[in-house]
Amino acid sequence: MSSFNHVSFIESASCSDSGSDEEITTKSREVGSSSLSERRSNRSEGAEKQPFPMKQILAMEMSWYTSPEEDSGSPSTCASDVYRLGVLLFELFCPVSSREEKSRTMSSLRHRVLPPQILLSCPKEASFCLWLLHPEPSYRPTMSELLQSEFINEPRENLEEREAAMELKDGIEEQELLLEFLFLIQQRKQEAADKLRDTISLLSSDIDQVVKRQLVLQQKGSDIRSYLASRKRIRQGFETTAAEEENDDNTIDDTLESTLLESSRLMRNIKKLESVYFATRYRQIKAAAAAEKPMARYYSALSSSGRSSERSSVSSPAQPTKDPINESRQGGWIDPFLEGLCKYLSFSKLQVKADLKQGDLLNSSNLVCAIGFDRDGEFFATAGVNKKIKIFECESIIKDGRDIHYPVVELASRSKLSGICWNSYIKSQIASSNFEGVVQVWDVARSQLVTEMKEHEKRVWSIDISSADPTLLASGSDDGSLKLWSINQGVCIGTIKTKANICCVQFPSDSGRSLAFGSADHKVYYYDLRNPKLPLCTMVGHNKTVSYVRFLDSSTLVSSSTDNTLKLWDLSMSNSGVNETPLHSFMGHTNVKNFVGLSASDGYIATGSETNEVFVYHKAFPMPVLSYKFKTIDPVSDLEVDDASQFISSVCWRGQSSTLVAANSTGNIKILEMV
């Protein structure tokens, strides 16, 4: 209500009282009126400079708020102000989407015609509005009547009730939210409690089984000790010497010390060991449950065979059926898990048995790329970027404390060497691969090159000679091909072509009809060579190049990758053609860019690390069993220094023994033993 006793409707764009449309255009753009924004959206770019018709719009809007009596020339009164209040009330309850619609609606309002949606949705407001907009001023309410009207006063009277109702509704909704939260927590805790109850039940069952087995073994041990003691008494006439008693005491002390050491290692890795235990148990229970389903169908069909089954049951006694789940709980898991646990705790450290010192140790290009033992574990060969294959006698190096060790045989190649492999049948035969893509076969006894095979177009990373068929050799190359060679004929007899570089190949020890290889596409492929068109299985899980593959046995494979992991695969679980679930992922070493070596023997897996360390894992557990760090000695000062650029480049077990040979990127070679 203005000081002139008038109610005025003024849009934000009308802040200027200038008489110029052009000036109003500029200023209205600065304040950003809604009307201007609407016009901008409907105008073309060329018409954007046209002035905004502010005067016309304001004149039109003022006409909406002009009462009928003012239109006819009568002076403005309080009734006219009431009329204007009616127009304002109508605009508050009736929003429109466009100016054209607004113009039509307001024109209809002059004749007291309201939109149907307002009459339906807001009948009380529409009735009150029509009272204020009566064409006859005397029929409009006075200010006193307006202030005392039910329309104005009813909301105020019910405001507290509405607020209380809203607060109550909000409170109920909050309580429902809290209740939902508590139910969710209860459900999760109940699920955890059920799982914990099942876990404790499983543990209790396993403890009972182990205790029973322990009692049986103790009884057998007692019987054996009684028997030996009686033999001893008979032989020595019931005499026990002091030396024997001392030996018994020393044995007890050694056993106690070993038990304490194993216990400390057990506690350090209790979480990981627990995880492996439960994974092993649930995997076996799941497999047993899967095996139970076809048996259940069989017995169901048997029981529904009618009279014949009745006669059969009469004529022959009922055979007890086995419960595979119960059988899996009855100790079938104990032997493999116990074997892994004992092997994990069998050794406490890697000890240096010999440090191989070569005459050309100061040679800058002395990186050892491959190490391999011969058939009997008597000799081992090294090969690398110095283009030489060096053959050393293992025992002589261990026993002789010489300052410098010389190879018994040295074979020279034209190119840097990437891999070597001994023939398991012909003791003196060794094969090599080089950076020029050539595969060579050597006779170590005569120090001669036997044959060369040159069909690869790029560097050959890996070779392997089949133990089951010692005339068959496989090679994998950067040219994306795996080639099979006949050693006797010196020719390629088969090729498997892939889209990525092949970094490693290996035959299983018991077959020459299948092989596995790792690729730069992050996958491991297992082929039946009788059908080389498609892999028998593809193992997917690594995130980077697969640098090594090694068979632990005919159905278990370990792979190494520059993603810092080794992965253990069960080939018997790969019937679908793709295996995405390794048995374990071994982590602890560092390997992100270099070939660090991989070797497997008797369940133990050795690998190198870019921290210049050798790591040993056991197939049963994903954490390292042992590790040994190569010391870096300055050749000038003979002092230990820290050189982050050095890494382990190759490792190899000595047959099925606890001895392994490891070399690093400077050519430093050590013979290590687990003790």
Automatic annotation (TrEMBL):
Bias type Basic and acidic residues, positions: 37-48
Pfam families: WD40 (PF00400)
SUPFAM superfamilies: Protein kinase-like (PK-like), WD40 repeat-like
Compositionally biased tracts (Polar residues): 1-18
Keywords, alphabetical: Repeat, WD repeat
Protein name: Protein SPA1-RELATED 4-like isoform X2
WD repeats: 453-495, 539-572
Region described as Disordered: 1-52, 306-330
Transferase found in the keyword field: no
Domain Protein kinase: start-end pairs: 1-152
UniProt feature, compositional bias: Low complexity: 306-316
Entry annotated with the keyword Repeat: yes
Organism: Camelina sativa
CDD domains: WD40
